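Reopening this ticket.

The earlier resolution said the output was attached, but the attachment link was broken on my side. Pasting everything inline this time so it's all in one place.
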Amino acid sequence: MSLPDPALAPVDVVVAAEHAGARLDWFLAQTFPSYSRTHIRKSINEQSVRVNGKRAKAAQHVVAGDVVTVSLPELPKEGPQPAAIPLEILYEDDAIAVINKPPGMVVHPGRGHWEGTLASALRYHFDELSEYGGPTRPGIIHRLDRDTSGVIVIAKSDKAHKLVSEQFENRLVTKEYFAITVGAPNHDRDLVDLPIGPHPYQREKMAIRRDHPQARPAQSFYEVERRFDGFAAVRILPKTGRTHQIRLHLASIGCPVLCDRLYGGRARLTLAELRRPPHSAALSPAAANDPADLLIERQALHARRLTIRHPVDDRELTFAAPLPEDMTRTLAALGEFRALR
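Inline output:
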């Protein structure tokens, strides 16, 4: 017997014995196959799902007889339209593709960003893409922030999507990022182990929340590759994948990502700023904003490498994306004007 649509009104589902012990998000994805597991997990995190009248977590295991009350947001009626946006394809076969996402590109449509997305570009460049993540996320297994560049993996089939998604969920994927930071960490290498939750009053931000019920554990290992006067080049290996994790963790140790508007305060860096002595008087507004001197005006964060197991033959594959021009240009200027003697 089919169940009512949980987007129209809350639906109560009783867990049968055959589903006892299953994760809540998996159980709901099986019960409501029109909704992706990603869509369901987001709804659980937003407290639209309750078990026996209590708040629920996606990873909790259901018990036979549990009453799960479900209220899900309405699914979009159609996905993004194809758009002839250039893409740098690093790898492609019948199951997956790997893209070097440019900075400034939103991954999938959302509030305020309906056009020019990676999802639209994928629709144009590939004949087949998975629908496992729902109609607005064709082929998209994971995401990068709008202003973060680098490696992103795309699935061409639902089976490939499911298998690679499970690698992300089980922390079997090795991710390596590269960042330019304002200030240099005190240690050459260290592990930042701080839980992340919603910001108390700014919706677009996350925050370190040690005792918040929605906070989740987060760990980022970092290693300083090069120190400059007032800056650093840093390699980061996140062990978890929380929203804004790297940006927030680096800011928490006093070294925010360069030009990170949310967590660093600075929006752009010019050549004129690097040429002047580090502790000299501030530049005039005109000098500081000379477009000819602009080095970078987005967060200097790049997904440099990603290692997964191939969803078909289980080969270990590592994909690498070269640094974009704005970060390369900034590093060259730092080497010229802020090198430590």
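Reporter confirms the inline version is readable. The chain has eight helices and 17 strands. The mean pLDDT is 88.
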